[in-house]
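User: Reviewer 2 asked us to show a designed sequence for the structure in our supplementary figure. I'm pasting the structure tokens here. Could you produce the per-position amino acids so we can include them in the response letter?
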């Protein structure tokens, strides 16, 4: 299923009010908008349904045949987040496939990260790294895409696309992207 940017924005604007500052002192309060109330309702539902975290972890582990670690933080993020260990090179460098599943709606994305001993380099914004590993792990990614497609999810292929009309708790208007809204504005 081809996902259009307008569909993603429609979803985002159901949970994030347009043109209202999160920390506004006067006028309409961000936290009193219908969008923010819908956002909080989804968050509470996800937190009550905490067994979903383990269900996704087990499904991903069985599907990919990899060690899958849950990095979900439902209190601060709007997604379930899993790190799948692909390579552990001489204990000084690792390669992981990160799978992030939004609980706001049926969206997911994935990206690769490389980490060196005692440091972490997020490579979501590095198209070169993403392209390299997508080619190497294309069979696993095809299985992953088919798995989510069968569950009715759509893959967000450009999570760094800008969302101009809204803001999140941590990002001001003009700084927000799709990933911040659908997955997490804390951690990429």
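Assistant: Here is a per-position design you can include in the supplement:
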């Amino acid at each position: 299923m081809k996902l259009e940017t307008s569909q993603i924005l429609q979803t985002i604007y159901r949970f994030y009010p347009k043109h209202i500052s999160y920390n506004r002192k006067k006028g309409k309060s961000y936290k009193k908008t219908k969008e923010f109330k819908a956002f909080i309702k989804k968050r509470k539902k996800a937190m009550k349904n905490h067994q979903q975290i383990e269900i996704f972890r087990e499904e991903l582990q069985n599907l990919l045949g990899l060690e899958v670690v849950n990095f979900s933080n439902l209190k601060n993020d709007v997604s379930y987040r899993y790190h799948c260990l692909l390579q552990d090179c001489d204990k000084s460098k690792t390669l992981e496939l990160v799978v992030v599943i939004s609980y706001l709606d049926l969206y997911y994305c994935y990206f690769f990260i490389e980490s060196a001993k005692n440091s972490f380099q997020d490579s979501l914004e590095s198209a070169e790294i993403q392209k390299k590993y997508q080619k190497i792990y294309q069979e696993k990614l095809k299985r992953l895409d088919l798995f989510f497609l069968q569950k009715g999810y759509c893959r967000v292929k450009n999570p760094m696309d800008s969302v101009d009309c809204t803001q999140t708790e941590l990002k001001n208007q003009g700084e927000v992207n799709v990933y911040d809204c659908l997955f997490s504005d804390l951690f990429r």
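For the response letter, you might also mention the following. Residues 5-182 form one domain. The CA atoms of residues 78 and 183 lie 5 Å apart.
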